[in-house]
Give the backbone structure.
Amino acid sequence: MKITLLVVGKTTDSHIQALLQDYQKRLGHYIPFSLTVIPELKNTKSLTSEQQKQAEGELILRNMTASTDMILLDERGKEFRSVEFADYVQKKMSSGRDLVFVVGGPYGFSEAVYQRANGQISLSQMTFSHQMVRLFFVEQIYRAMTILRGEPYHHE
């Protein structure tokens, strides 16, 4: 079982990249983890937001297998406290299926992606840049792993 964070578009901020790499390295001590980047679409100015969501959706779905639990990071998703999220991840891990969390493009997800998804999570009711969401979410996966191991990273 492994966890993947699938994102649309590369991380352009070098500070965020460095922090992401740090948390990826830390996560490697607990579980196989990868960050997969779907390249941004070219010539999006000629596409409507729906066409862009559709095209990105096709690329997202190509990265899924029948044995993948796909969880969308979506503003309409369920919010968790960190301990609750750790429990959620543990339950998903016990299924033995690979877990893929997805950060979509600027307009969200296509209907086909929503239909394929096995769940939706919201990090907050606030809006964050897609660059920051990556960092916040990878840190939360790391935090979940330390909670599950009873390590002192998380204070409650």
